[in-house]
Structure formats: C-alpha cells, structure tokens
Amino acid sequence: MDGIVIANEIIDQARKKKDGNCFIFKVDFEKAYDSMDWSFLLYMMERMGFRATWRNWIKNCLQSNSISVLINGSPFMEFNMSRGLRQGDPVAPFLFLIVGEGLDGIMRSVVSKQIFKGYSVGKDKVVISHLQYADDTLLIGEESVDNVLALKYILKCFELASGLRINFHKSSFIDVKRRGGFVQMAVNKLFCYVGAIPFKFLGIPVGANPRRIST
Questions:
Q1: pTM
Q2: 68-79: b (≥16 Cβ within 10 Å) or e
Q3: Which of 21, 109, 143, 174 gets the highest tally of CB atoms within 10 A of its CB?
Q4: Reduced to 3 states, what is the DSSP secondary structure of residue 107?
Q5: Burial class (CB in 10 A: 0-12, 13-18, 19+), 130
Q6: Given a cut of 60, is residue 148 above it in pLDDT?
Q7: Which of 1-15, 178-192, 201-215 is the least confident region?
Q8: pLDDT in tens, 6-34
Q9: What's the rounded Cα separation, in Å, for the pair 196 and 65?
Q10: For residues 140 and 34, what is the distance between their CA atoms, to the nearest angstrom?
Q11: Of 111, 107, 100, which is closest to residue 154 (Cα–Cα)?
C-alpha cells in the first residue's frame, strides 16, 4: 500500500507545482515468467547474500524443469528448459522479485550518478525514481528529453541483462500536467502509448480526484 500512497502524493504535488513537471512510465513486462535469464537470477542471489548452497538448490530446481509440446491434444517431444520460470510454481513469484531487484539497483545507480533525475517530493525533497512490486513497476522522473532518452537505455540494458522483455507497445507514458508536445516526443522515442490519470497500480486507481464521486 505504501507504493500507492507515494504515487498519489507525487501526482498531487506535481499538479500543484507552478514550475516543473514529472512523468510516470508504467512498465509492461511481456510474459514476465517466460524469458527470465537464469544466470542473472543466480547473479542477483549472490549479490543479495544467498549462500552457494541456496543458489545450487535453486539452480538444480530450474534445470530439472522440462516442458513438452501438445500436438492434437497429446504431449510430444519433451525437452529441458533453458530460461524462464514455470507458471504455477510456488517459488516463481519470489524468484521474480529477486530479479526485479536488479532494476532497483540500476535505478539507484543512475540516479546517484545523475544519469536519470527522479522527482523530488515533500519538504525534505526526497527523490523518487521508481516504485515496484512484483511485475507492477512505475518509473518516475523530471520532465526532460534527457530523462526520456536515459529511461529508454536503462530499460534496454535491464532487458538484455535479465532476459525480461519489456513490451513498450503496452507500456504507458503519463504526463501529470498533460503537456501535449512533450508527451508526443516521449511516446515516439519509447514506442509506447499515452497513458492517463487515473491509472491502476497494484489493482487500485491512482491519481483520482477525491472530490469526485466516480472516477
């Protein structure tokens, strides 16, 4: 729920500010579990402090998975998987969260190096650049051409490293103050579509006007 509260606060403050603006990029992962790179998962587990015993257990579980193709309703030619997670596997959501930490690390790094500028909120000017929970991901930044270009390269790098494919055509670019010229430039660069407020994050509408009965 914290992510929803923070997203609403960002939108509310951006609306009230006379100068400056922020954008929100809502990421859509294409078949999130199907393309995950196992080596990246194991690398992230090592970075997060998992011991070799745990990493080997996960590696053996992944390598023991096999799938088969259905032809005319009958299984045919079973073969071993080389990437991805099995749908319905109770461990899969937790492994996906570990891989998602890779994007968190990238975003923290690019913000600290001022490659990407997040959006400052509150009296203490806390910089927010991303909100994540499982495959629900929002990337948040100051409105600038440099930020849009940086965002594209960041996502491409994460895609290449993790194996997770980002469906840019189903991802949305949301400009809080709806400045048409900037939005059109951004969607042309990112090959995404123009999103609108309110939008859903974690299944809950974000940015709705509380004074309205229906949103």
A1: 0.86
A2: eeeeeeeeeeee
A3: 174
A4: helix
A5: buried
A6: yes
A7: 201-215
A8: 999 999 988 888 766 899 999 999 887 77
A9: 41
A10: 26
A11: 107
